[in-house]
Amino acid sequence: MTREMNLADVAFGTVDASVILHSVISTVLYFVVGIVVLLAGFLMVDVLTPGKLRRHVFFERRPNAVVITSAMDVSLALIIIAAIRASSDQLAQGLLDTLVYGLVGVVLQGIALAILEAAVPGRFRGFINAEEFHPASIAAAVVLLAVGGINAVALT
What we know:
Elements lengths: L16 H32 L4 H7 L3 H24 L4 H29 L16 H19 L2
Helix pairs in contact: 1-3, 1-4, 3-4, 3-5, 4-5
């Protein structure tokens, strides 16, 4: 025998608006911290490359600058995601954890760029603002992605 299900048999439970509000506030705050870290990463690449990175990427459409900037953004996103996952369950401590680990990631990415600059023949700074695509920008991007992945896993 099968029993027919009535609407009264469905338990909806209670709804706590404060839980939803807390989650929304947490989401927005983690988003802000993530954006701060991404901006710090962009500024770091801007300092380490000749000229103005924003101009190279958005106005002059320099392909090598776009490749390096994109790789840095993906790398930092991996680090930020891992930092959020590894952070404290307490909101304030979790935000601080994410900010600190994210900024450490920015510094480590900068060190990777500096090592790359020293190790690569011809110096990538020389082609970052070139009008034509240079395959070495892909190699530099892969190094940044690898370092970002290592940093992210180190946080877990």
